[in-house]
Amino acid sequence: MRVKPIEFYIQNLRYTVRSAIEKDAKNLSEVRLQIDGETENLDREKGEAYIDESGFKQIIKDDTESISNLFLVAEVNEKIVGFSRCEGNKLKRTSHKVEFGVCVLKEYWGYSIGKNLLKESVNWADLNGIKKITLNVLEANDKAIMLYKKYGFEVEGVLKQDKILSDGNYYNTILMGRFNG
After folding, report:
1. Pairwise CA distance, residues 134 & 100, whole Å
2. Average pLDDT over residues 116-143
3. Helices (H), 12-139
4. How confident is the prediction for the chain on average, in pLDDT?
5. What domains can be seen in the chain, in order of their start residue?
6. Rg (CA), the chain
């Protein structure tokens, strides 16, 4: 599904949150690879589960055609600096929910880009009859957990020793959900 673009101006940075379009595919592939190498808060290390330009073109096409998917990008000066996805499915028993994920280039942390991608995704879900949004977050990502709670997400469970990070330690994954209605 597509949404109307929204402009933000925060701390002298102007950016747009909008639906992903086909011409974003190459930039998305590059940005995702870079972000994976900048943080351990995501599931992948740099280069793992790589999605190339044609892979992103297919994801964008599928998400645009699906009423239960939303693919948003944050753009600064025609360059994508972050993105988020809400992904639903066609199974009747779980058709009321979507899974949310978000990532932002480290250089652009602190400009509320992740927050605004989340906010627009929540608004879209509420307006389109989505009853539940789920997400996974690393237990050490306190800032993200606080943000999710601020937008109505609650902890639903914990996957113990779910990820091993570069320090050699195991970390829990927090499962969170937000209910509408």
Report:
1. 6
2. 96
3. 25-36, 53-65, 113-127
4. 96
5. 6-131 (3.40.630.30)
6. 16
pTM of the model: 0.95
Pairwise CA distance, residues 72 & 56, whole Å:
13
Do 53 and 26 touch, CB atoms closer than 8 A? yes
Name the residue type at position 175. Answer: L
Give 32-90 pLDDT, tens digit per residue: 999 999 999 999 999 989 999 999 999 999 999 999 999 999 999 999 999 999 999 88
Output the pLDDT for position 169.
96
Calpha distance 88→100 (Å, rounded): 9
Can you give the length of the chain in residues?
181
What ranges in 8-112 are assigned the alpha helix state H? 25-36, 53-65
Specify whether the CB–CB gap between 31 and 105 falls below 8 A. Answer: yes
E strand or H helix at 142:
helix 142-150
Q: How far apart are CA 134 and CA 101, in angstroms?
A: 9
- pLDDT given for residue 159 in this prediction: 98
How far is C-alpha 74 from the geometric centre of its chain's CA atoms? 11
Amino acid letter, residue 134: T
pLDDT at residue 73, rounded to an integer: 98
